[in-house]
Sequence to fold (1020 residues):
Amino acid sequence: MSRVRLNKKLATIVTWLTAALAGVWAPSGADEGEPQPQPLDHEFYFSRVIYGAPSEEDFGPRWAVDYPKADQQFLVALKRLSGVDAFASEHALRLNLERLHEFPFLYVLEVGSLSLKEEERDTLRHYLLSGGFLVVDDFWGSWEWDNFENEMRELFPDRPLVEVPLDHPVFHAFYDIGEIVQVPNVYQGTTGGVTHEYDGYVPRARGIFDDDGRLMVLVNWNTDLGDGWEWADHPQYPLRFSTYAYEMGINFVIYAMTY
Amino acid sequence: MLEALTGLLLPDASDRVLVAAELTHAWSLTAVGFALAAGVLAAAIYAWREQRRLAPRRAVILFVVRGMLLASLAWLLSEPALKAEFETARPGRVAMLVDTSASMGLVDAAGTPRHAPVLDLVAPENGPLATFLRNRASPLSVSLHGLAEGADDLPNSAELAFGSGHTSLGPRLDALRRSGGAPVSAVVLLSDGDFRLRPADRQTLRQMRASGIPVHTVSVGPDSVGNDFEVAALNAPDRLLVGAVAAVDARIRKSGQMPGEAIVRLEVDGIERDRASVRFDDTAEQGVSFQLPVDEGGLRRIEVIVSPDSGEPNTANNRAAALLYAEDRELSILHVEGEPRFEVKFIRRAVQDDDNLRILSLVRTAENKFYRLGISSAEELKDGFPRTAEDLFKYDGLVLGSAPQDMLTPAQQQLIADFAARRGGGVVFLGGRHAFAEGGYERGPVTQMLPFALQRGVPERSVMLKLEMTGAGRQHAVARIGAGARGVTALADLPPLTSVNASVGGLETLKPGAAALWSGTVENRTERRIGLAEQRYGKGMVAAFAVRDTWRWQMHRALDLEDQTHETFWRQWLRWLTRGARPQRYVTVDARQVAPGQAVTLRAHAVDASHVPVADAGQSLVVITPSGERVGLALEPGTAPGVQTARYVAREPGAHEVELTHPDSGEADGTAVAFFDVQALGREMYSAVRNDTVMRNVARLSGGQFVSMADAESLFDTIESNVATVTQFDVVSLLELPALLAWLLALASVEWLARRRWRLP
Fold:
């Protein structure tokens, strides 16, 4: 093994370890945040849903995966590329917060084992039917899907999760999205291996619609847009995945603000 | 000395009061001085030349005589004149101004019309006024006038045409004051006070007082009508868009010993739609408001009825009716934002299910990148904000959100002003980080449209505003949200909204003619700002809503999902503001309700796509009577560009429809329609009490005296003292004074005699 090849291998390992420690799983006891105090100075807050107990996982709560770097980097791109007056920092909220409805855009990920309490379900149902918008990201395979679908069935028994066609306005609100791409996690992205996790081979964009045909919930299954945002500055993470993730994310925001 | 000179020159001066007298000259005083000096100098030179032949004493005598002669001649060359100012106290003219409006023709229980005692008073032969004039020692002229325009200098009271209507009091008094003939020294107004005293009228009355011309008032009519409930006024829109809520306001008046509470019903085409209980407490008049949802198009008759009481002799005045036409057409609203905002989404959702509102959103999502929503074709708004009047005037309303001024060219800003002023469109300015002064709108046509003045140099972060209804808002047709409407939360129960515009100040910044409908108290402070304000701008309406997130009403956790507050607000508000946005061709009538035999003036309006008046649109009018007869009317050029008029005398009772035929097909196109109602008005049953308050105010403001009809003759002594004082100037040239000629001849003779005696050449 040449010295150069060894250095590259070492560099990859160090990168992976650093990434794992820094962001793939947030440290235990990650800051759960508080909603920004009134009055709100900005039009848009990228509000991440906090769920579950604070320390139920060894590497920190699942809601905080990629947090806060993914959120911060997405907001940099959102502010740079669009005219959205966005709050520049991460903003995490619990569903049972009194002021949840002041933030009409929510982002939640790792929902494979999501289990909402009845009170949280009521709040989320009212929130979505009032006009709120929920983006779901980064969960993989049939097992996680089944769990999430069950949870959504509890939320909206009469509203199925259906495919969102590519000609839907959410894919054309700012950028024209021509295909649903599987965005891999940072390890798979930087090592160049397969892009799927578990049996989640095909990426999907599914959604729950309201009575007037408007999207309330947009589900990104078998893909990890969050890693695409978080590792856009990684020299070995493929640019095409990050670019796609940003385009999708900005489209979601514009759609959520206009439809 | 001048007084003596005045007496000498003007023999009648002793009969007048001399205020001042002075000598005037055609030349300036300097020139006169020079002339005098020149005369003396000439005399001195002459005397110097003769001193060799004369003794010094004789030379001095000649010098004095010649000097006086030459100086007098020089002074006379300056055309001296005496100007005397006299004040003559001479009797003026008393103008008797008789209210000839319909209410003066009301009859009492005995069948006597209200104007009868007025006619008795001014009867030419043996009336008290005529008797008074005859018995006066000094002459006093009296002229008779009606309150209707043009009813001046009537020869006798028989010429007074009661029921002819009247114009405002101010213009009539102005006309009297400026009329020819003897100067008016006093006005006597005989009326029941059934008119409104507008600010301009009050101003005229103050001017009359300053000019020393009092307006004495004689209050005519009964002060009580016994036990009675009356619908004193009914205000309802004559037309609105399907889906709107008609604000029907009525004033209920109580007289005599009627109960302190009354039931008021709202009926539509004879079917009761709503009712309310009205408590009078200590007031004689009380307002009642109904909000009537109008879900279907077409014409309907709305009627407000106060339930009669058993002890009420006159029940004919317990009701008032009006026609209401619901127009079933689509309004196009253009919503422009300079940045993506949640307000776009929620306003779109609020009107989405409204078949009569179509909203197009133009959102600048990035520099030079626009996102268009609700467009009907790929071409619509593809170049961003419209650049021509034709393109912008297609819309009926414009919502301008957080759009910085530099996003629009000066020509586009002017188009927005024209959109409201000329097209009659409704414009809503929303708060936002790029709105008002924060968006650079500190000057230019858009700033002029705002209902308030912008504060400058007030940097501040956002604040929460708790909105409250103002007095004007409580009276407003659509601003009083939650006032009994189903599924709508009262303003006081809604969450505060965010304001990021410190440039919007307090109520004191309102422009004249604008109204603040909602104010907002800044949370944790006592400061109050304008929340929602509106004003008319040309043909259109402009509103400014100084908050950025009405969507909070829709997202509010405490509100039920079925709550319609946000939807109702935007649907009603957009309809309200765009009510001046008429189609390119439309027709109007000058009276909504007339009596049989009364004429109605119909006006056909036509403009092109840029809303420039079309001189001759080649259209005609058809009046459809209640029995279905179609009466074609030819149009004549009107007084304004693009307006043609026709006159129609209504005979048949009931609702008449007026249709404008299309110039191409000659057929009525169904959109350009108007209505008027022909009914025996029965006004004699209404407002049967004289209004002393108005009459007292007229007298007070003008410095006159208020009396009741019974005491009218006591005014005569007052009138006698109101004599006009005339200032007169008399100017008499001194050249015409014989004494001056004699003086000159005397001087010349003295010199001639002296020279003969002293044997001088």
Q: What stands out?
A: The interface with chain B takes residues 38-41, 43-44, 81-85, 98, 100-102, 104, 123, 126-127, 129-132, 173-174, 212, 214, 253-254, 256-259 of chain A (CB under 8 Å). Chain A is about 35% helix and 15% strand.
